[in-house]
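Blinded run. Sample ID left blank on purpose so nobody reads anything into the name before looking at the predicted structure. Input follows.
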Amino acid sequence: MTDRYTQAVNSGVTKTLAKKLGLPRPAILRRYRAGDPLTVGPVLVVSDGASKGAADTLAQALLEWDVDVRRQPTDDVRWGAVVLVLTEAAEPTELAEPVLAAGSVLRHLAPNGRVMTVSRAPGEGDSPTLAATRHGVDGFLRSLAKELRAGATANGVVLTDGAAVEARSALAALRFFLSAKSAYVDGQLLRVGPADTAAGTDLTTDRPLEGKVAVVTGAARGIGAAIAKTLARDGATVVCVDVPAAGEGLSRTANSVGGTALQLDVTADDAGTRILAHARERHGGLDVVVHNAGIVRDKLLANMKPAQWEAVVAVNLAAQLRINDTLLAAGLDGLHIVSLASTSGIAGNKGQTNYAFTKAGVIGHTRATAALLAARGGTANAVAPGFIETDMTSSIPFATREVARRLPTLAQGGRPVDVAEAIAFLASPAATGVNGQVLRVCGQHLVGQ
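Blinded prediction complete.
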């Protein structure tokens, strides 16, 4: 699972040699460590003229997080982040000043720095000019992300349906993207709506899931184990679920997080009932469900056997739907469901028609379930990983693996913890305004995405 190339070109003699030869040098990404500052330097907040009030509000929020905030670009600062506030822009010409102001400091952006946009989504009834302005921010942000270097990333918060910039979920999304927790999230725009029940939530706490009970399926190893550990770090009591054959690894994960293990095949008809009963009987309730369990049976469709198609559908999609039906029928308040999709379900992948079908299906049921949970203060979201360094990807042939690693803008694979950090954010009370969304954790892997 080790990316030896990235390590080599960032240390010792091989670093010097790589510089001389002009070889690609993927950065060592800054990941979350308790006690580290939110950003790697001062934050520049700029806006178009009409959005100045919103920019003032965000600047004040950053100051309350002990961030060094500046409002004028200068070339004598190693900037930790640049935040472009474009919420009230109504004409394409209004973006020139803030965009070029941001561009003037990009050469002085620190390694692992951040660029953020805060904008509004186009809505029904918008004039063509307003729709063009708002939608144009998406293309700008995604393209800018591809220009950044040294582990810097660019992401955007997109306000929908009149959501305020000071809504807790909007600020929580801003904080997540600015932080080291979003190390492998790049070129993404996350929509935040006004249905925000996170008022009064402490966005600076290290334990946002304190007192919550979370279930993670497929928790015996890999991404599932990383999710369990990250949720526990954030304060949750974790129920770790996996098949009986993975019992040893499952117990190891559960013991490491101080949670409980539930040996269960998620394809069982009563899986949802057993999960809910275990959470209630052992821990008093259920607040978060992470659908991580999944399998691959890759084969060109021309060579695919019925069993290969049916097994993937049963585990990756049908099981989630049945479990969700049980949870919805139980009428749980404030339930957060986060499901693992994949970039294969968005762009497709050769030899993965079965897998891509299920992962696109996950995106579909997430969007449909979101409205059903919102009525009780809950959410349904999905995380779509790209190339993540796991035992499974380590078995990919060397040449194929190296190409997959270098294709993203960040020119490297992600780690299981990168997926886990995104899930922990979406599962947190502060993210209640984020619903029905798909957040890609792929280092900006997809062309045009």
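Unblinding after everyone has recorded impressions. The two ends are 25 Å apart (CA to CA).
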